[in-house]
Write a structure and sequence with these properties.
With 87 residues, the protein is mostly helical. The chain has 2 domains: 47 residues; 40 residues. 78% of the residues lie in helices and 0% in strands. The protein contains 3 helices and no strands. The chain starts with a helix and ends with a helix. The mean pLDDT is 87.
Amino acid sequence: MFFDAKSIDEIASKLANTIPPGLNHLKEDLEKNFHAVLQGALSRLDLVTREEFEVQKLVLAKTRANLEALEKRVAALERQALSKEEL
C-alpha cells in the first residue's frame, strides 16, 4: 500500500522535535531514521486504501441484500412445500 510521504515526513519531524536540546546535532539523522522506521513499519501492515474499503463495503451490502432476498425465497418455498404436504 502507498503511504503519503508528506504525512510520514511530518510525523518524523514531530518525533525529531521531541529530542532534548542537548542532542540537536543528532536531530537530522534521527529524523531520517524515524522516517525509515515509520515507512518500514507501515509498509508491513496489511492495510487497504479508503477507496478499496468503500468498494468492498458496497460489495458486502449488495451481497447481504442478495442473501436476505434468497432467505425470503427459501422460506416461501418451504411454506409452499409444507402446505402441499398437508393436502
